[in-house]
């Protein structure tokens, strides 16, 4: 890797002041230490984590903690563009390279020269583009679309994904050579459920910022009951989901004290019925099978089958949540009151199906 030359005075696509990576849990602190170590090594890196876990913020920290911090940080979401557009977006094109290419266009790699390029959702990148990126990693050169002249760049590549890239490579859907080079360092972000101690800190931070945005003079605070709801929620959408829930709850409260947490903005007695899905069809098929076994196909057998399905789902959710009913409600996609109403329907103890 050639030495870094004097940085260009260009603005990056992610401002350092926008980097919010907060926490005090052991999992968060261990991840932060690993991030600081990886940032100092001028080699490609991969960030692996669930949706909403903060992969873009982690990439920004890797850049601003590195020797390239004064140079551009350029980001591209590989899943947001059609496969035919990604190559031109990354490497640029020459005039006349395709219909509508009136002049030369600089791509993201050139814009990130001497800095960092962040490729989000890198698992969605077409194989032919992966081949071209592999050449950049190995030799620091590429050609623009429609061009023949080699363009030299000095760029650190950081990729991010919520997919299992080794499995994709084993199935031929991701180039093994590129994976080997990008995974010089791999940073795996802990999900929010693994850093429960950070929920209150993050919630209070997002609430205070939302109150300022709304022009309120008093900082927003959660009641003990509201905070308990936040602490017990499973957070499948991680920090991004927590941020949305907290900001929505602050916006809907007319008081500085937040008593009600709004997890589901669609929750309403007038909510339209969901269209039938494969899972719903499977439940109906199971109920129909029970009904077919009943004398004369009486409708009572259908309700019995639905009840059996509800009992099994409740039992499985409670077992997975270690009998924490709020967590079990989240696993089933139900509000807590909806879960309690369903739970009260059954008098006998719930046991998972064997």
Overall description:
This protein is of the alpha/beta class. It has three domains: 16-190, 3-Layer(aba) Sandwich (Rossmann fold), CATH 3.40.50.300; 194-258, Helicase, Ruva Protein, domain 3 (Orthogonal Bundle); 278-344. The chain has helices spanning 26-39, 55-64, 83-91, 108-111, 127-139, 165-170, 176-182, 199-213, 224-232, 238-252, 278-292, 300-320, 325-331, 336-344, and strands at residues 45-48, 73-77, 116-120, 141-143, 150-152, 156-161, 185-188, 221-222, 257-258. A hairpin with a 6-residue loop joins strand 4 (141-143) and strand 5 (150-152). Helix 8 (199-213) packs across helix 10 (238-252) and helix 13 packs across helix 14 (336-344). The chain is globular and about 70 Å long. Residues 1-19 and 286-300 have low confidence and may be disordered.
Q: Can you give keywords for this protein?
A:
354 residues, alpha/beta, Rossmann fold, two-stranded antiparallel sheet
Topology:
Blueprint: H1 26-39, E1 45-48, H2 55-64, E2 73-77, H3 83-91, H4 108-111, E3 116-120, H5 127-139, E4 141-143, E5 150-152, E6 156-161, H6 165-170, H7 176-182, E7 185-188, H8 199-213, E8 221-222, H9 224-232, H10 238-252, E9 257-258, H11 278-292, H12 300-320, H13 325-331, H14 336-344
Parallel strand pairs: 1-6, 1-7, 2-3, 3-6, 8-9
Antiparallel strand pairs: 4-5
């Amino acid at each position: 890797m050639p030495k870094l030359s004097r940085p260009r005075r260009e603005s990056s696509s992610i401002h350092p002041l926008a980097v919010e990576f907060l926490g005090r849990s052991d999992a968060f602190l261990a991840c932060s230490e690993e991030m600081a170590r990886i940032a100092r090594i001028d080699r490609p890196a991969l960030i692996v984590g669930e949706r909403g876990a903060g992969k873009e913020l982690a990439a920004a920290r890797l850049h601003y903690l590195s020797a390239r911090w004064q140079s551009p940080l350029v980001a591209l979401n590989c899943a947001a563009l059609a496969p035919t557009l990604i190559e031109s977006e990354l490497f640029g094109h020459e005039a006349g390279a395709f219909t509508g290419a009136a002049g030369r266009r600089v791509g993201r790699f050139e814009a990130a020269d001497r800095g960092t390029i962040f490729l989000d959702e890198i698992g969605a990148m077409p194989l032919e583009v992966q081949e071209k990126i592999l050449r950049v990693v190995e030799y620091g050169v590429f050609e623009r679309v429609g061009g023949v002249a080699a363009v030299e760049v000095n760029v650190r590549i950081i990729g991010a994904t919520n997919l299992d890239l080794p499995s994709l490579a084993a199935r031929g859907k991701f180039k093994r050579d590129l994976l080997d080079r990008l995974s010089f360092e791999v940073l795996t972000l802990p999900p929010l459920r693994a850093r429960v101690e950070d929920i209150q800190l993050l919630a209070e931070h997002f609430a205070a910022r939302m109150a300022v945005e709304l022009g309120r003079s008093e900082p927003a605070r959660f009641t003990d009951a509201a905070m308990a709801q936040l602490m017990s929620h499973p957070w499948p959408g991680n920090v991004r989901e927590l941020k949305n829930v907290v900001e929505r709850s602050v916006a809907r409260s007319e008081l500085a004290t937040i008593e009600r947490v709004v997890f589901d903005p669609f929750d309403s007695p007038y909510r339209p019925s969901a269209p039938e899905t494969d899972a719903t069809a499977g439940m109906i098929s199971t109920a129909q099978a029970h009904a077919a076994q009943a004398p004369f196909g009486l409708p009572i057998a259908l309700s019995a089958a639905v009840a059996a399905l509800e009992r099994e789902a409740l039992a499985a959710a409670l077992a997975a949540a270690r009998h924490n009913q709020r967590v079990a409600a989240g696993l089933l996609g139900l509000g807590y009151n909806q879960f309690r109403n369903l739970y009260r329907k059954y008098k006998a103890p719930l046991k998972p199906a064997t």
